[in-house]
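Journal club prep — side note

Before the paper discussion, L.F. wants everyone to see what a predicted structure for a comparable chain looks like in token form. Sequence:
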Amino acid sequence: MLEFPKDFYWGAATSAYQVEGNNTNSDWWQWEKSVGLEEVSGEACRHYQLFKEDFDLARSLSHNAHRLSIEWSRIEPQEGQFCEEELEHYIEVIKALKERRLEPIVTLHHFTTPVWFAQLGGWQSKKGVALFLRYIEKVIIALSRNVRFWVTINEPIVYIYFSYILGQWPPQVMSFPAARQVEKNLISCHIKAYRLIHDIYKRNNLIEPSVSIAHNMQAFVPCSHNLKNILATYLRDRIYNFSLVENLIRHRSLDFIGINYYNRSLVDVEKWRFKNLLMDVCRHGHSKLPKNFLGWDIYPEGLFTLLIKLKKYKLPVFIMENGICTEDDNLRWGFIREHLESLNLAIKKGVRVLGYIYWSLLDNFEWDKGFTPRFGLIEVDYSNFRRTVRDSARRYAEVCKSNKLI
């Protein structure tokens, strides 16, 4: 039997665009239609209307926390024009969580932006920082009395990689200089947002907030131990996993380290070029690990390794996302169990962990992959939006309720 710390946070996550439906003023809504995605978000899970029922399910599964995001394009559908009705909606959402004794963990940017913001240049524009701060000030003031945990930006490196390096996501720019500019702006956004949030709480004599990002981390492992692969593994670990964290710590802008962890990347470099060192992965089927629906290696020990490396920063860690898309619910429970075992081992080795948030509460719209990848603890029938609690959710609920893994 494995025990977890007292007052540990247990829960699951959603993001607004992936579950709410009909976010018509978002850049993604416009983009997914312009490029002809096979599956578009549409009504998604109708969570915008059904959030109370969904939170009832989370509470019935013994969760005591829930991570969600605010959709900027609802709050500010036109530049400088804020929608009080939508702000009231999110106030109601937060109150619904509190009424069910679910600690809100609120994300301010989860990949999507308003159309008007994208048309002004999005995150490539230096104006973007001020515009983001104006939006979040409205949100913080409205929600601060009922929210302690804030995530300013979800997975900034993932967003940059898919939108500005691979060019798969909007705005589909393939440019390292553009990617670098976006990175600078997002870092500036977080640092200034961190200070703004703390300042608002201080001015209003509120209990000090806890602010971070949700940083995606991967376990980089060399396919074979030749010099190219060893060097590439080291570089990716430093650049992808730790450089952002260290930068934000230097600026004293993290109250905890929020991490998202899913998989292993098997490093196999073909050429001595910087691009190859940073991007090449094994394409020869050498990995024998089980995989999720999207073909990602399932590697629980990677979570332990990363947590041990994070220990030196002397900040608490919060698992903001960890999950699997699969049609095999037994595999889902096995994934959760094995990652909780790795997490528990790291805690025993002295890593201070605040909580574990599974991705995701519901099956949802998985960006350019559509609705086929099923991550949810709760199944969604998209023909009628009926929710069905999976057996893995019930097994996870036993852990949440007892604070123990048996």
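L.F.'s comment for the group: The chain is about 45% helix and 15% strand. Keep this in mind when we get to the figures.
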